[in-house]
Amino acid sequence: MLAVIVETPGRVIGRVEIARRAGLRDLSERRIDAVMVTLRRLLGADAIRTVRRRGWMLELDRVPAAANLLDAS
To answer: Does the pTM exceed 0.90?
Structure first.
């Protein structure tokens, strides 16, 4: 899921699209929400903006930190 939001910085991406792109279509909506909470803990609370009723957006200034996190895994 982190790779998906890193690929779409500054763009709102919803649960269905995240799950589809990440190959996680079988995950529940609540599980996707839980993963986003974990990503916020790793990147900082303001790194991923919630856009109500649409999805999430990675803030442009946090792309390098998110990319580093991907490289470390």
So the answer is: no
